[in-house]
Write a structure and sequence with these properties.
The structure is a homotetramer of 195-residue chains.
Chain A (H helix, E strand, L loop, with lengths): L6 H21 L6 H8 L3 H7 L3 H24 L5 H18 L1 H11 L5 H25 L7 H22 L4 H14 L5
Helix pairs in contact in A: 1-2, 1-4, 1-6, 4-5, 4-7, 5-7, 5-8, 5-9, 7-8, 8-9
Chain B binds a DNA duplex (21 and 21 nucleotides) through helix 1 and helix 3.
Chain lengths: 195, 195, 195, 195
DNA sequence: GATGAATGAGTCTTCATTCAT
DNA sequence: CATGAATGAAGACTCATTCAT
């Protein structure tokens, strides 16, 4: 579905993307019907299928954009930092901020991981994110700044901490992202025992 | 429900629970139909509704049993250990083993968390698990064995590490649970920097 | 289904008949399931089909008994009265009393009339009742006590008055049966204009 | 519902309403399935739910339209008449004509009264009709044209006569509405004794 | 570009009835 | 007599998708 769109067309498409994101996050992907989306926007069904081939494609599109956005933000934040450990720290903090700013998309990520159907689409992007982190960890290990352990596992452990803390403390309990990020950083760097 | 069941009835019920668990884990909850379940078992559709009020109730039942089983296993493993930090460590190792033994149920947990509809049912059990961990963390902090930080956040951070590592390394990549547990334990205790 | 029943069997049958009457009247015939009936009585499904061939037969049975009871009562009340007009009056009063004493059965009558399936069964009994009234009307007309009009129509008109007044004033509004009967009698005898 | 309908849409809706009226009257409400209705019209199942939220809503709609039609007709017939007693007479005659012209709808009325679920919907309209009659009766009583009795009961008595006579003599036996109306009028005005 | 209308396979659920024990 | 289990057709309703206008 690579249609050439007028300005107005682009806006319609965006409306659909945004409104669907909100409904999917609130209701779940399966329980949200195409009818619900177009009715919410006050347009006919045809509109939906003019911009997207299917409900599934729409969802994949949302996911793709979100991943791209998150990665862009992370790379911008990191590019001026040299130290590998600092890069990891910045990565964690940026994730938390993004999670705070994009609660709905974050929710969709969590859904997509658990759904056979979308996991692959997500995986591509996630692997990219993880491989960035892995690279920094490898540098740090080579440097002696990080203890010698499987960098892949370390990267996923960090990811697990971020995802869980963001969803429980930022989204559910409304804790300030910076505070959650502080804990996440120190936990990831030093564990529970501390130095 | 709460029907008086004969021996045969109990077995049927178990069959439904087990088969549904497998289908839900493989296909997802929404995409798996009641028809698929009863056909897979070669029984009439009425059988399903003899044992469960709805597809939803069946799923909730699966979740409830799984949580009870995990918790039982964890408490048995912990009861002979006194030291708070060791209890946390044992908790992590037991979780990994359980995850390895119950891949399907683990998958359903991950789905249920991300689904508004079931999150509450899960929450009850999860809160219990977390509150156990929180208690040990509080003891350890009071003891000076663990650094002074919000025990609630620490508990969720540990949970995030477990869940993520189990699903990626144990289930997807088939790494030995003990190895994953080793990394999880050291990460949770010492972070990436090490002592 | 003409089974020879023990004493206990007769009681069971009665229980089923009575409980079903109440459920049918409260919920409607179609919306009331056999399951609801047997569960309400705390017995197995087999019990139902031991005593009745089908839900339909049970309902027909209820109707039959009710009609027989009403007719019996009416004839007992009338037998000592000679005057035709008085017999009609007594008939009206007895109907009102019976309606007051048997609200559920009365409701089932009204349902059965409006249901293709049961109307015939009801018709037989109703025709009997009407033909009693018609006979008295014919006598009264021959006697010059009642004006010359189609006795059949007069009988149905009287029936309509009884049914409607009983259901609205006795059942819905709880007016005393004797008061409703007074109005019904004077209306049927003299209309709204009065003598 | 309240959908914006094109001309074609309005026609479809009408088709559904009309066909369903006929089926409900012939088969009963519960025994008539949505499938039967759409198949009878040769359309897909979705069509039904495009125009109505549920089978129940459709039925309520039929009832509502019918009541409005009957009332409209009655008021048109009455408006040029001043005398209260004449108004009642005209009311009776109009009802009989309407019943003759709308046998199916009349049948549905009778069903709806006897069904807990729809009685309320009907009640509203019926109360309106009754209250019209009550008003005329009160006028006539005040005027000394009608004997002093509870006008509410009188109105329901008249209603009972109409309903019963129409269904037995007009619908079942095919008697001419005018003849039935004559009897109904004289019965309601003078009872069986006559002046 | 957009709309209302239509499709029809598929969903969950119910229920009268039968049957082995 | 009675029970719990099972059947499976049928019911109401949903929904992604297509299409004529």
């Amino acid at each position: 579905m690579a249609r050439r769109l007028t300005q107005r067309g682009k806006e319609r498409r965006r409306q659909l993307l945004d409104f669907a994101t909100e409904r999917f996050a609130a209701n779940g992907y399966h329980p949200t019907s195409v009818a619900e989306i177009v009715e919410g926007l006050g347009v006919g069904k045809g509109v939906f299928y003019w911009y997207f081939d299917s409900k599934e494609e729409l969802f994949a599109e949302i996911l793709k954009e979100a991943q791209a956005d998150l990665r862009r933000r992370q790379q911008e934040a990191i590019e001026s930092v040299d130290d590998a450990v600092s890069r990891i720290e910045i990565g964690i903090r940026t994730s938390m901020e993004w999670a705070a700013d994009n609660e709905d998309l974050f929710t969709l990520f969590r859904f997509a991981i658990s759904e056979e159907e979308f996991a692959p689409a997500l995986r591509a992007g996630a692997d990219l994110a993880v491989s960035d982190a892995v690279r920094h960890l490898e540098d740090a290990i080579a440097n002696g700044d990080v203890r010698d352990a499987d960098p892949d596992m370390l990267a996923y452990a960090i990811l697990g901490v971020n995802i869980h803390l963001a969803s429980v403390f930022i989204h559910e309990r409304g804790v300030a992202p910076a505070d959650v990020a502080d804990l996440a950083v120190s936990f990831c760097l030093e564990g529970i025992l501390g130095r």
